[in-house]
Design a protein that fits this description.
alpha/beta, 5 strands, 55% helix, 11% strand, globular, binds CO-5-methoxybenzimidazolylcobamide
Length: 229
């Protein structure tokens, strides 16, 4: 048995709790992440601040250590699962905005070959919160699935996420196909994900590059204002 006193998350100050949550996410401690998230919510924290200051920041550190060979896939997966536990609590808050009329329709997916979905889920959640109707195609989405969703859902926007340098070129494949079929005039194409940048987005002819989830929502709202007065 350890002599260490039991750590009670609720006894920590806000700053201490945020630091502890970063450690816990790094260690893949799902229940502690859910508990910490709930405590911050109960203390009146904004859902966005909880996301950026604790969950996303912790995942950034996980990514750095993964890149440096300090962490391996199983540990990263546990961290990702722990993060999802926190996000589930934030989802209803980020997605709830009853006063908002439908702003537009979005089809979103992580592109073929790529199974990273945390950032894409965050973008989808926040778009929902801004009143967009979102059809989420999940991960590993190929061009046929994007086209089928376009036919079924008639979106104003198509969103693609890629986290790997090897999968980001596939966004260009999808854009080219939409272009070829003359679908671009009715549908903006947004791209994002950690390795994507403005230069790449411009090179493949995307309508917009979303650096993070809130910036993407702002761009999407602006796009709707400009294109659908
Ligand atoms: Co992966 N992985 N991973 N991984 N993983 C990265 C991306 C990596 C950078 C880690 C590293 O080496 N430092 C590296 C890629 C290197 C490269 O391409 N050059 C990498 C690698 C190599 C791999 C594997 C190949 C590892 C292996 O198997 N050997 C493998 C690939 C599997 C595959 O996809 N085929 C793999 C697997 C995994 C896990 C399954 C273990 C797990 C994913 C779990 C999941 O998503 N359900 C995982 C994770 C968690 C990561 C890191 C650590 C974190 C990603 C994340 O969730 N970030 C990541 C390192 C990193 O990115 N720093 C890494 C938090 C999230 C909120 O941020 O997704 O960037 P992000 O989203 C942001 C913005 O980018 C933006 O808004 C979001 C919120 O603000 N955004 C958009 C995202 N999509 C958008 C779309 C938009 C607009 C904005 O418009 C539509």
């Amino acid at each position: 048995m350890s002599d260490e006193p039991e750590l009670i998350l609720a006894d920590l100050s806000d700053d201490e709790l945020v630091e502890q949550m970063k450690d816990d996410l790094y260690d893949g401690m799902g229940p502690e992440i859910a508990e910490g998230t709930q405590i911050l919510l109960d203390r009146g924290w904004d859902a966005n601040a909880i996301l950026t200051e604790s969950l996303v920041e912790a995942m950034r550190i996980v990514g750095l250590d993964f890149g440096d060979g300090i962490l391996f896939v199983p540990e990263v997966l546990s961290a990702a699962n722990a993060m999802k536990g926190g996000m589930e609590l934030l989802r209803p808050i980020l997605a709830a905005n009853d006063a908002v009329k439908p702003t537009g329709r979005v089809v979103i997916g992580t592109v073929k070959g790529d199974i990273h979905d945390i950032g894409k889920n965050l973008v989808a959640m926040m778009l929902e919160g801004a009143g967009f109707e979102v059809m989420d195609l999940g991960i590993n989405t190929d061009v046929e699935e994007f086209l089928k969703a376009y036919d079924e859902f008639n979106p104003d926007l198509l969103g693609m996420s890629a986290l790997l340098t090897t999968t980001m070129p596939y966004m260009g494949v999808v854009i080219e196909e939409f272009e070829k079929r003359g679908l671009r005039k009715d549908c903006g194409i947004f791209v994002g994900g950690a390795p994507v940048n403005q230069e790449f987005a411009d090179a493949i002819g995307a309508t917009e590059y979303g650096g993070d989830a809130s910036n993407t929502v702002e761009l999407a709202k602006r796009f709707m204002g400009v294109n659908r007065p």
